[in-house]
Amino acid sequence: MGKASFFTDLAKEFSGYDVSKFSKDVLAGLTVTAVALPLALAFGVSSGMDAASGLITAIIAGLVIGSLSGASFQISGPTGAMAAILAGLAARHGAEGVLFAGMLSGVILIVAAILRVGALVSYIPSPVITGFTSGIAVIIALGQLDNVFGTVSKGDNALSRLVSYGSLGFHPQLGTFFYAILVIGIMIIWPKKWNARFPASLLGIIAALVFQLTIDLPVAEVGEIPRTLFSENRLHFGDLSLEKALRYFSPAVGIATLGMVESLLCGASAGKMKGEKLKPTRELFAQGLGNVIIPFFGGVPATAAIARTSVGIKSGGQTRLTSIIHSLGLLASMFLLGPYMGRIPLAALGGVLMVTSWRMNEWVAIRKIFGRKIKTSIAQYLVTLCATVVFDLTTAILVGIAFSMIMFVIKSHRLSLEVNEVTCGNQKTQVVYVDGSLFFGSQEQITSQIEALVVQGANRIIFSLRGVPSIDHSSVEEFISIVEYCRKRQVQVLFCGVQSGVMSMFRRLEFASYLGEESFFSSAVIALESLA
Question: Which residues pair with 432 in a beta bridge?
Fold first, then answer.
């Protein structure tokens, strides 16, 4: 995150930069503009704010975050995942909640960058991330039902609004539904090879706009797009207070968590496409600074967007100028096309988001999870998906991680125990081969096995721990109890094949001295030979 290293990397990024590379950046930036324009408008509306706030977010994020990003390819702006959690916040606290929590999330991200916690994202299991993404997709789709059908619902989250149809009724408006279906149909049938040249979402929005300008149906429209970067509905320095910081701290943590996860995952995925590694600490700092600034213009929280980033890379983007040029393109659109964009039917934006919500699901990963019938992964995916829809983002991720840990503990406690009986003189000796980590969840299994062997008349028990890579305090204490149990019944206990880490634990907890160093052997064969 150091200033010197940033400028060193920047010099390397622009080394050999010429007119040819600049022209590629311009072309890629304008291509990303075409992709980002309809999405920015749609995500602004679906965030519980207005279309202008989405546009402002994309412009400022592309300039500020794009300039300071941890890689040359990252392009940030409003996203569907962020919009999904902001909609509930807007329903509860209005624009003030979205703006203040967004600013506070930026501060949290800067602190996260200083503490270098970006690496923690790698510890989130992939089925949890996939389930979280699918949950966000469900929330986006449910949140667009009113825009797509022209209906009315009430509630501060997707489920409560869905339930409200039971009392308010569900009465679709034909004209509204027409625009949604028009855009959805165009986005589905538009060939992928053409999509790179002219985005289907933009084509659908233009088609809906042309129809609306021609036939002027009585449907909800985007409304006025102000020709300024400073929205009337923005955060002011006078709005800052400790009381508000405490009130919005919890949602701010959720926004910051999403921003961190989404930005770093986007960077990891896009980095493979371009062959460039993302610098996570620098990226978090850029995301944090950008999100501190954006609310003072009236924008919603931003994060790196894989859709725009991948388009920029595939379109030949060379440097971070691609992000900056995409922002300038959006700025020009705001000033030149504002009056026309204000006439876009909200149903058209709803159609864009419906298709986006479907496509944002990681279908390859989902098919792999269910196709290979990995029960643990399926459970992680479904639990996280449901938690995302029912609870808030932070809770959903914590639930997914906690569930994954529980599943790991349950799976890990299953030891493999194999018992071989050996006759050594006139003594009945049982060699117990243990395979697996020993911790508090697995100790009872060994105790039950030893009690059974003693009842069967074993005179000696040799534990072979060559297959035990680690052991915890509880399991060492359990071995002490086993030794005491056996000694009371004149049964000798020996150990062999103990790995260094396990032996170190034995010594630290004084089990080795309690049992006696002479009771430990390098192998079962040597132990048996010493007893012969």
Answer: 419, 463
Cβ within 8 Å of residue 36, ≥6 positions away: 58, 62, 75, 77, 305, 308, 326, 330
Query: pLDDT digit string (tens) for 227-284?
Result: 889 988 899 999 999 999 999 998 999 899 889 988 988 888 788 778 888 899 999 9
CB 121 within 8 A of CB 264: yes
Helix (H), strand (E) at residue 432: strand 427-435
Reported as a single tens digit per residue, the pLDDT across 273-315 is: 788 888 999 999 999 999 999 999 999 999 998 878 888 888 8
Mean pLDDT for the stretch of residues 205-218:
93
Q: How far apart are CA 55 and CA 38, in angstroms?
A: 9
- Among 360, 349, 348, which Cα is nearest to 81's? 360
Tokens of residue 172, six digits: 């679709």
Q: Is 179 exposed, middle or buried (0-12, 13-18, 19+ CB in 10 A)?
A: buried
Contacts of 385 (CB under 8 A, 6+ apart): 131, 132, 134, 135, 138
Select from 146, 198, 200 the least CA-distant residue to 177. 146
What's the confidence (pLDDT) of residue 3? Answer: 67
Mean pLDDT of the 114-126 span:
79
DSSP calls for 210-276: HHHHHH--S--B-----SSSS-SS---GGG--HHHHHHTHHHHHHHHHHHHHHHHHHHHHHHHHHT-
- Which among 110, 96, 37, 113 has a CA at the least distance from the CA of 300? 96
Whether the CA torsion 132, 134, 137, 141 is positive or negative: it is: negative
Residues 323, 69 contacting (CB under 8 angstroms)? yes
d(CA 252, CA 109): 10
Each as own residue / partner, the long-range contacts of residues 365-369 (CB below 8 Å, 24 or more positions apart, any chain) are: 365/126, 365/127, 365/130, 366/130, 366/134, 369/127, 369/130
Pairwise CA distance, residues 41 & 341, whole Å: 9
Q: How long, in residues, is the chain?
A: 532
Token pair for residue 488?
């009371």
Please tell me the distance from the alpha carbon of residue 498 to that of residue 158, in angstroms, as a whole number: 55
Q: How open is the CA angle 42-43-49, to the nearest 5 degrees?
A: 100
**Residue 345: DSSP 8-state:** B
